[in-house]
Write a structure and sequence with these properties.
Number of strands of chain B: 0
Strand content of chain B: under 5%
Order of helices and strands of chain A: HHHHHHH
Largest sheet of chain B: none
Strand content of chain A: under 5%
Radius of gyration of chain B: 29 Å
Largest sheet of chain A: none
Largest interface: A-B, 38 and 33 residues
Distance between the termini of chain A: 43 Å
Distance between the termini of chain B: 71 Å
Number of helices of chain A: 7
Number of helices of chain B: 1
Radius of gyration of chain A: 19 Å
Structural class of chain A: mainly alpha
Oligomer: heterodimer
């Protein structure tokens, strides 16, 4: 993470049009990819839970959803802080990428609220798994929104055949790796916590507490 | 390199305040989340240890002890 920070703030060149504001890119885009990865894991965990009915898959989906919400919150904040100096506004309801990202955040906040308010048990876990699968529809929609409706957001340049200079690409790739590893670490910790909570609930039940 | 820091706190003519706030928010929120996870994990594990201890004490308090399990020698 420190290497990514150093490369993004010190080594990466100053972009000609956006200047220093373009450096937000090195955090904003990897965090967005971390959020997408988290929601892919929610999808996989939810499908496997409905198929196998094993609580470990539900714990994986729940853990990843929480990290996804944290990452999407950061995407919305850093995006607004990048948009203000470059577009002249923190937010625009006309931009499809912004709106679909906000909808994505709301879907998974609803998922976490369902888990929190619904309490433990297989019935709520099943509902949450269905929401986790249906909610994922917004992930590809968010990605393709810039191709379907053009307003403020630029089209992705980090695609095969895209034109990104090496001095910008290298710090970005280091940052992407750092955030991917951070996601794996956070998921491991959050998953362990979820399994510990299940064990605690079982112990309480055995003791009649 | 980062560019020339101008007289009015600008970098190459751009005010870096939004960049600073964006990086600060990301780092603070992520560190806050890691700290929150570690604390919750410690609390849950402490409670599990407490309940396990209670479980081992209960049979002794509640009634006659269970017959000893056959021990293997050697």
């Amino acid at each position: 993470m420190l290497a990514a920070l150093y490369l993004a703030l010190v080594v990466a060149p100053l972009e000609a049009v956006q200047g220093v504001h373009q450096r937000i890119f090195y955090m904003h885009v990897p965090v967005a990819m971390m959020a997408y990865l988290a929601f892919v894991v929610v999808l996989v965990g939810s499908v496997l839970y409905l198929w196998k009915r094993d609580s470990k898959w539900d714990a994986l989906a729940k853990s990843s959803a929480e990290i996804g919400v944290v990452a999407t919150t950061l995407v919305l904040i850093t995006g607004s802080l990048w948009g203000r100096p470059v577009w002249g506004a923190f937010w625009s309801w006309s931009d499809a990428r912004l709106v679909t990202t906000l909808v994505l955040w709301l879907i998974y906040v609803a998922y976490l609220m369902l888990r929190s308010l619904g309490g433990p048990g297989p019935r709520i876990a099943r509902f949450a798994a269905v929401l986790g699968i249906l909610g994922f529809v917004d992930v590809p929609l968010t990605y393709v929104s810039v191709f379907l409706w053009t307003f403020l957001h630029p089209k992705p340049t980090l695609v095969p055949g895209g034109v990104v200079p090496g001095p910008i690409l290298a710090p970005f790739l280091v940052s992407l790796l750092a955030f991917t590893l951070l996601y794996v670490y956070l998921l491991t910790q959050r998953y362990r916590l979820e399994r510990d909570r299940e064990e605690l609930a079982a112990l309480r039940q055995r003791l009649g507490l | 390199m980062l560019g020339v820091i101008g007289a009015q706190g600008t970098i190459g003519g751009f005010n870096p305040v939004f960049v600073f706030v964006a990086y600060a928010v990301v780092w603070l929120l992520l560190f806050g989340y890691v700290f929150y996870l570690a604390r919750r994990q410690a609390d849950v594990r402490a409670e599990i240890a407490e309940l396990r201890q209670e479980m081992t004490q209960r049979p002794r308090e509640q009634g006659p002890a269970a017959p000893p399990s056959p021990r293997r020698e050697g």
